[in-house]
Amino acid sequence: MCGSTEQPYATVTTDSGGSVRHRQVCQRCARCDASAVVRRPVRMCVRCDRTTDTPVIVSEVHQNSGPGFNVYACRDCASHFPPQPDVIDLL
User: Fold this and answer.
1) Beta bridge partners of 59
2) What does pTM read for this prediction?
3) Is residue 56's pLDDT more than 60?
């Protein structure tokens, strides 16, 4: 990370001497670094099956063993899903 606490972070890809390096930096640093290529988040919408570069998390799937995963929707379809419950309310 670049040391900034400014959210959201961007994944930046740089090519330094033939090796590709991915790192997380704040949006301001990503815009200032001319040698960096910013990868936009691209996900498939669970409702309309289109890819979107502005994904919204509409659900979190938890697993008994191993990592869970997030379910994404595009901005247009996200309003069709119920809001996620607060974790504190579930306790």
Assistant:
1) 71
2) 0.54
3) yes
